[in-house]
Amino acid sequence: MVHLNLFVVVVASLVCFTLAQEKYSTKYENFDVDKVLNNDSLLTSYINCLLDEGNCTEEGQALKRILPDALKTNCGKCTDAQKLKIEKIMKFLIKNRSIDFDRLTAKYDPSGEYKKKLEKFSA
Ligand SMILES: *[C@@H]1O[C@H](CO)[C@@H](O)[C@H](O)[C@H]1NC(C)=O
Ligand SMILES: *[C@@H]1O[C@H](CO)[C@@H](O)[C@H](O)[C@H]1NC(C)=O
Ligand SMILES: *[C@@H]1O[C@H](CO)[C@@H](O)[C@H](O)[C@H]1NC(C)=O
Q1: Is Lyase among the key words of this record (predicted)?
Q2: Ligand 3, residues at Cβ distance < 6 Å
Q3: Domain boundaries in the chain?
């Protein structure tokens, strides 16, 4: 019985730990999206990073790590601030950098799942 109780405690704490981890790190919450979008060469370097065609900053690396999961889960683990930023970047890319956007979605959203959802709200 002692063993069973220990097991329950371990499982319960694992579940709690996982729930507490449900959102992405807020470490980059202050990431200045406008600064990047308004600076063409800076934006290009982020895009190259995401396409594995250039070097990544620490922020670029973090974005690269969460992007596949964020697209798959429709940003379900994003904080509200992250959600707004990602939407802003997506809208900007669709409008102003459509070729890069297509290359990014080809890499990160090969099944077109996210693009379908996006088209709904950018139409
Ligand atoms: C754009 O970003 C690059 C790279 O970080 C930087 O060297 C440059 O000064 C920035 N330009 C402007 C206008 O902020
Ligand atoms: C990436 O960084 C390395 C080392 O700093 C540099 O040699 C290389 O030219 C850079 N590559 C690009 C594509 O900027
Ligand atoms: C496209 O770029 C222009 C100029 O940089 C900018 O003012 C505009 O907001 C961008 N479009 C979107 C949808 O972000």
Answers
A1: no
A2: 91-92, 95-96
A3: 27-122
